[in-house]
Amino acid sequence: MRREDDNTVVTTAGPGEIVDAVFAISCRSLPIDHAYALSQAIEAALPWFAEEPLVGLHLIHGASSGSGWMRPEGPEMLLHLSQRTRLVLRLPQHRMEAAAALLGRTLDVAGHALRVDRLSARPLSRITTLISHCVLLAGCNGESEFRLAATEQLDALDIEPAEMLCGLMTPIATPGSTLQTRSLMLAGLTRSQSVLLQQQGLGAERRLGCGVFIPHKAIGDLRSRPD
Known about the structure:
The chain has helices at residues 35-45, 96-99, 143-156, 191-200, and strands at 9-10, 18-26, 29-31, 56-58, 78-80, 86-92, 106-109, 112-123, 130-135, 163-173, 178-187, 214-215. By secondary structure, the chain is of the alpha+beta class. The model is unreliable at 1-15, 64-69 and 221-225 (pLDDT under 50).
């Protein structure tokens, strides 16, 4: 699929695949906790986003975050974005054309203007160490319960990581409640398990950026399990 204008859409993924739709954006800053506001702005522009199975939203990181995610402290703080910052949606390949409806729009994200300019499709990574900065698993009151619930969901997908590292908790505010999420890194996956986990995600609220896994480069990937 290709659009012959300044908002070129390029994709090399095959039919039926899950891909990351990567949008160039112009936006000076966003609230630290922008998950709900950004999700609502996207759903207003793309009504199908609320119902399409397996879609997900990548939360936007600040310019200083590097390869990780350094979350500023304090509810009054903002994430200051660079020109390299991207808006990324995880979605089925057949929705790429529909996602292009965002091009040229300026989204209102909690009073912050976010203009969407260009789009390309990025295939899922085959790196075998993955991280999700926000995983929501219902009924987990501590790290041990979180780890057990994560293991049960991974077992259901026939995914067995060699290492599981639970990290910091991050609250995500919604009108009904504040969701308590926790970061999760998985290492020692096979390549097929890595792709499957990126496709399926883990836990609830993928449209708020929860349970969306991205590659985390590590030395172990140089000697990763092949399949």
